[in-house]
């Protein structure tokens, strides 16, 4: 009976010790170590055989010691187990916390992905692949086909001019407010205008009237020789005025030359003798390199800039509109 109890304890201890092999505490406890390794009391088989229950004092003492050692071992193990259980609970809680946190991060990520999807849709609606329609745009429809999506003012080609239109791409193409014409754009590749004057009297018949004073000569289309050369095709405006010479009349022709016709008369100005004003104005469609000049046909034009008189001769020209296409 005693041996059975001892065996049970020994095997129990061994199991527990194996289970807690990573925790050397019971083994390093000197009290436990001594008693656990103490030899077991000798077996008394004869006493067991006759069913005699009396045990010697020496045997009782050994069993009592052994029991004490094992009881200590068990309580140590139980303590360890409790600690382990508490640790495990803590770990479980942390795992749970981590899990909860992960779930909320997942939710947030889903929200962010939804937002990104929405933004993608908006961006795709507003921008679209750049399309080459093979020509300059002439309407809001062209602009839309090219990929424009935002309402606003646009420049489009209208015949050989530029127009400003307002496009409302949110409206159907059939709506009258889909495209609204604001007006044509007066655009020039570069400006051309001049203001020339004379400082002396001119009397050379059939001579080109030269100019000595240039208040302005933007674009350099004319110089002191008095020959204007159109630098760019477009509509030009010219204005000339002078006074006849003191004792003679004045007759002046404005002439033009183009690619196919040599100098020909556009118009004539005439003034009676005694400083009478002669004047003429022209608006002309010119091609590039077409030329304009003034020729004295009869008498003379009077001018001076000394003693507080003059100048009386004025020649003005400007590019009204350029044919940029
Ligand atoms: C986490 O703990 C809460 C209570 O703190 C509980 O309701 C929930 O079921 C636990 N979740 C998991 C996955 O264990
Ligand atoms: C003035 O202009 C004419 C016509 O373009 C040109 O033939 C001439 O050389 C120019 N003269 C000067 C001094 O620039
Ligand atoms: C030159 O001017 C003449 C007379 O106005 C016109 O008949 C002719 O077509 C012009 N040439 C060019 C190339 O414009």
UniProtKB/TrEMBL annotation:
It is found in: Secreted. Residues 194-304 form the C1q domain. Its main location: secreted. Residues 88-122 form a coiled coil. InterPro entries: C1q_dom, Cerebellin_Synaptic_Org, Tumour_necrosis_fac-like_dom. Residues 1-21 form the signal peptide. The keyword Coiled coil applies. Keywords: Coiled coil, Secreted, Signal. GO terms for cellular component: extracellular space. It comes from the Eukaryota. PANTHER family: CEREBELLIN-RELATED (PTHR22923), CVP18 (PTHR22923:SF62). This is C1q domain-containing protein. The lineage of its organism: Eukaryota, Metazoa, Ecdysozoa, Arthropoda, Crustacea.
């Amino acid at each position: 009976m005693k041996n059975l109890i001892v065996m049970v304890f020994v095997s129990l201890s061994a199991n527990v010790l194996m289970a807690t092999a990573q925790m050397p505490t019971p083994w390093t406890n000197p009290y436990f170590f001594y008693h656990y390794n103490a030899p077991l009391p000798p077996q008394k088989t004869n006493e067991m055989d006759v069913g005699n229950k009396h045990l010697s004092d020496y045997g009782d003492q050994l069993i009592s010691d052994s029991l004490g050692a094992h009881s200590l071992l068990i309580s140590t193990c139980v303590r360890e187990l409790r600690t382990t259980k508490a640790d495990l609970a803590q770990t479980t809680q942390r795992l749970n916390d981590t899990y909860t946190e992960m779930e909320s991060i997942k939710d947030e990520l889903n929200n962010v992905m939804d937002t990104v999807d929405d933004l993608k849709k908006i961006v795709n609606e507003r921008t679209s692949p750049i399309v080459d329609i093979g020509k300059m745009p002439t309407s809001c429809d062209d602009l839309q086909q090219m990929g424009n999506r935002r309402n606003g003012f646009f420049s489009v080609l209208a015949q050989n001019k530029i127009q400003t239109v307002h496009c409302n791409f949110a409206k159907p193409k059939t709506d009258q407010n889909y495209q609204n014409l604001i007006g044509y754009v007066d655009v020039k590749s570069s400006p051309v205008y001049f203001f020339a004057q004379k400082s002396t009297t001119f009397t050379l018949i059939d001579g080109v009237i030269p100019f000595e004073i240039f208040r302005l000569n933007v674009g350099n289309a004319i110089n002191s020789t008095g020959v204007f050369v159109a630098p760019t095709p477009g509509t030009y405006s010219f204005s000339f005025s002078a006074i006849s010479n003191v004792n003679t009349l004045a007759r002046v022709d404005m002439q033009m030359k183009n690619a196919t016709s040599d100098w020909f008369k556009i118009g004539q100005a005439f003034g009676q003798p005694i400083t009478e004003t002669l004047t003429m104005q022209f608006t002309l469609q010119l091609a590039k390199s077409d030329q304009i000049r003034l020729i004295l046909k009869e008498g003379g034009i009077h001018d001076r800039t000394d003693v507080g008189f003059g100048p009386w001769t004025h020649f003005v020209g400007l590019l009204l509109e350029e044919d940029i296409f």
